Amino acid sequence: MAQVLHPNVAGSLFATDGKRRPVQDALTAGTLVLGVLAFITSFFSSLHLLSSWTGLVGLLVGIYGQWISVTTRERFGLVVGMGAAGVGFLISMANGGLFGGLF
């Protein structure tokens, strides 16, 4: 009856190891939010400042989250968020960059 104490979660992408990790979960959620915000706002050229900064911060938060992540669930969210943040960052850099042409 060992399966009662240790359920089989190997086949699930969103399975955890049963431990609470609030820091990693917060970094994953923050990366996803920043990535989606950077990606969506990158399609409006007048919002290139917002998009470029949120994309850059999303990438940095995601990199730190990858460094301390433990489970596949955390890494999956971080990679998706970093991908969206990276695309948003690069599109906004093409539209004016981090400082809006001041430098």
Short description:
This protein is 67% helix and 0% strand. It is mostly helical and 103 residues long. The N and C termini lie far apart (67 Å).
Shape call: elongated
Distance between the termini: 67 Å
Q: Into which percent range does the helicity of residues fall? A: 55-70%
Structural class: mainly alpha
What do the pLDDT scores average to? 87
- The number of helical elements comes to 4
SSE order, as H and E?
Answer: HHHH
Give me the Rg, rounded: 17 Å
The percentage of residues in β strands lies in under 5%
Q: What's the assembly state of these chains?
A: single chain
- Uncertain ranges: none
Give the beta-strand count.
Answer: 0
Largest sheet: none
Can you walk through the features of this model?
The protein has 103 residues and is mainly α. 67% of the residues lie in helices and 0% in strands. It is built from 4 helices and no strands. The termini are far apart.
What distinguishing features does this structure have?
mainly alpha; 103 residues
Helix-strand layout with pairing:
Elements: H1 2-5, H2 22-41, H3 48-68, H4 72-95
Helix pairs in contact: 2-3, 2-4, 3-4
